[in-house]
């Protein structure tokens, strides 16, 4: 039985370079992640020792150009995200927070000095970054953030709280978004600055092999040179979130595919009533449904990647992939678990772990509801958000 579904010859749509990138990342995951991920997840350990290896693999800020960044295509980045998440959502999340959020914020909105200082070291994995937008009382509506930066002479004084901030406790630099007297601005805060504190959130039922933190900012002073000069208003952080959402549209396919592959292998080996359960009609229906959804999700993601590489990708199109592909991935992981029967609750098998992780992925970078309303506004031309924030900012 074929493990990876390719009912429509998806590989025929990829270039040799794209296939080579996918092959390299898949081999890395097979060798360095799969043998250990169940243990890391069980013990709630993020494998920080893999960071230099991920840098060597060329996946940190891989879609960014210049400043020591790999400068790979959007499709290559998507394929890499898919393979990383086949190992675990936490691994793809690390690459996303580092590259699509923290590095992207500096690349898009930073000064030349900021780019030259931070980006090469972050691409090499020598510096880890985090992205502080979400707050305890401000998730889907970041316009209601209460973190405030007050200008005092040549410095800014930051006070506030952030929540669910990936990597914050191991980061050396934090991109912090704050209200000011002139609107939302972004700041690069070195995490050893007095008044900055990051505390990992525990215990968690999802994303256990990953790090999410609470951040407290108490009279944190940074110089004017730490402000991202091109970041003005909520459009700035949302431009970074769109980079992360794009990667999610690809990444979740990896979790779905790994769940499907696990179920397919198991179905071929598990004997009941003197035959493998893969020979039962209901099992075949489950496997076919999973394979079809994976094929569709791959085509959606590839379409977005091609549009992104030509500069034609629109925000609402990213919402299509984030919403549809994540929904499909969760359904596939859950269905794959049913093929495994009672054994599916064992950490020996991946689908239940993927399903738990995908509940977090479904929520971050825009919930189902937010992406539904983004698409609803695009389809109808009517803004359904209760906030007065324009939909184009939300997208």
UniProtKB/TrEMBL annotation:
Enzyme Commission code: 1.3.8.6
Entry keywords, A to Z: FAD, Flavoprotein, Oxidoreductase, Transit peptide
Catalytic activity of the protein: glutaryl-CoA + oxidized [electron-transfer flavoprotein] + 2 H(+) = (2E)-butenoyl-CoA + reduced [electron-transfer flavoprotein] + CO2
UniProt xrefs under InterPro entries: Acyl-CoA_DH_CS, Acyl-CoA_Oxase/DH_mid-dom, Acyl-CoA_Oxase/DH_mid-dom_sf, AcylCo_DH-like_C, AcylCo_DH/oxidase_C, AcylCoA_DH/ox_N, AcylCoA_DH/ox_N_sf, AcylCoA_DH/oxidase_NM_dom_sf
Superkingdom of this protein's organism: Bacteria
Coiled coil: none
Domain called Acyl-CoA dehydrogenase/oxidase C-terminal: residue spans: 232-379
SUPFAM superfamilies given in the database record: Acyl-CoA dehydrogenase C-terminal domain-like, Acyl-CoA dehydrogenase NM domain-like
Domain called Acyl-CoA oxidase/dehydrogenase middle: residue spans: 130-220
Chain ranges of the Acyl-CoA dehydrogenase/oxidase N-terminal domain: 16-126
Catalytic class of the enzyme: oxidoreductase
Biochemical pathway: Amino-acid metabolism; lysine degradation; Amino-acid metabolism; tryptophan metabolism
Needed co-factor(s): FAD
Family label: Belongs to the acyl-CoA dehydrogenase family.
Name of this chain's protein: glutaryl-CoA dehydrogenase (ETF)
Source organism: Microbacterium koreense
Taxon lineage: Bacteria, Bacillati, Actinomycetota, Actinomycetes, Micrococcales
């Amino acid at each position: 039985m074929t493990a990876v579904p390719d009912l429509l010859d998806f590989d025929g749509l990829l270039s040799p370079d794209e296939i080579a990138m996918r092959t390299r990342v898949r081999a890395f995951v097979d060798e360095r992640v799969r043998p250990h991920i169940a243990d890391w997840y069980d013990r709630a350990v993020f494998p920080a020792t893999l960071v230099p290896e991920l840098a060597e693999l060329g996946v940190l800020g891989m879609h960014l150009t210049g400043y020591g960044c790999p400068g790979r295509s959007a499709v290559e980045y998507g394929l890499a995200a898919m393979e990383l998440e086949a190992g675990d959502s936490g691994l793809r999340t690390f690459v996303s927070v580092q590259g699509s959020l923290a590095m992207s914020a500096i690349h898009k909105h930073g000064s030349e000095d900021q780019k030259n200082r931070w980006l090469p070291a972050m691409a090499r994995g020598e510096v880890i970054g985090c992205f502080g937008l979400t707050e305890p009382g401000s998730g889907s509506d970041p316009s209601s953030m209460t973190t405030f930066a007050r200008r005092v002479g040549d410095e800014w004084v930051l006070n506030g709280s952030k929540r669910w901030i990936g990597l914050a406790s191991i980061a050396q630099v934090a991109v912090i978004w704050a209200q000011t007297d002139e609107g939302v601005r972004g700041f690069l805060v070195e995490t050893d600055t007095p008044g900055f504190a990051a505390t990992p959130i525990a215990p968690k039922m999802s994303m256990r092999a990953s790090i999410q933190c609470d951040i407290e900012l108490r009279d944190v002073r940074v110089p004017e040179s730490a402000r991202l000069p091109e970041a003005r208003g909520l459009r700035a952080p949302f431009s970074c979130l769109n980079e992360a959402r794009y990667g999610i549209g690809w990444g979740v396919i990896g979790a779905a595919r790994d769940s499907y592959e696990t179920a397919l292998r198991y179905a071929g080996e598990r004997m009941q009533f003197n035959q493998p359960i893969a020979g039962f009609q209901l099992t075949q229906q489950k496997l076919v449904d999973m394979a079809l959804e994976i094929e569709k999700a791959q085509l959606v993601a590839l379409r977005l990647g091609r549009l992104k590489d030509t500069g034609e990708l629109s925000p609402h199109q990213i919402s299509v992939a984030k919403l549809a592909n994540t929904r499909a991935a969760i359904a596939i992981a859950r269905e794959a678990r049913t093929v495994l029967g009672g054994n599916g609750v064992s950490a020996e098998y991946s689908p239940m772990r993927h399903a738990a992780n995908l509940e977090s992925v479904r929520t971050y970078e825009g919930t189902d509801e937010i992406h539904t309303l983004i698409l609803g506004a695009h389809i109808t031309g009517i803004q359904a958000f209760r906030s007065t924030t324009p939909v184009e900012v939300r997208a």
